[in-house]
Amino acid sequence: MTGPRLNYMVSISISETLNAPPEKVFALVSDFEKAPQHSNYWKSVKLLSKEGNSSTYATVAEAEGRQMKSVTRITPTPNERIDAETIDGDGKGTKMAFKFAKIPNGTQLTLEGDIVLPGFAKMLGGLVKGRIESGMREELATIKKLTES
Fold first, then answer.
1. What angle is formed at CA 24 by the lines to CA 44 and CA 62, rounded to 5 degrees?
2. Is 32 domain-assigned?
3. What is the pLDDT of residue 131?
4. CA distance readout (Å), 103 to 68, 80, 96, 97, 98
5. Of 65, 71, 74, 122, which alpha carbon lies 20 to 30 A from 105's?
6. What does the pLDDT look like over 30-82, one tens digit per residue?
7. Which long-range contacts (CB under 8 A, 24 or more apart) does 121-128 make?
8. What's 3's DSSP letter?
9. pLDDT in tens, 37-49
10. Computed from CA positions of residues 24, 103, 146, 128, in that sequence, does the dihedral angle turn out positive or negative?
11. How many domains does the chain have?
């Protein structure tokens, strides 16, 4: 008999200033089905269902050479925020939010939330958080490049 699977949670908050209006940044980030076209993280995103303003997707992501399959619910608030929650599979319980704030000459894009990792990751502590933040900074840099071009 095995016990419950232990998980480890990492809290993240990073932001980037973009020289593009919130509407343009929101349009790119909210088109989740196209994420694999411009992301090193998302490999596959397939719409499963829509309910109200929320959409549920089957996703495949890859980080540190590890493939993760999950079901993710995305709930956008136009030009303000996008909430994402992993509701099944790898990382179940992860909650992230993209926040879009209008600033002079552009947008302050903030990505924050709590990421659930398997129990073994706890042994790696701050190293895991640093690698996650690094990957997320790469994603924000890609969003910056795409919206400022």
1. 20
2. yes
3. 82
4. 35, 12, 22, 19, 16
5. 74
6. 999 999 998 888 999 999 999 999 999 999 998 777 888 999 999 999 999 99
7. 121/8, 121/10, 122/6, 122/8, 128/8, 128/10
8. -
9. 988 889 999 999 9
10. negative
11. 1
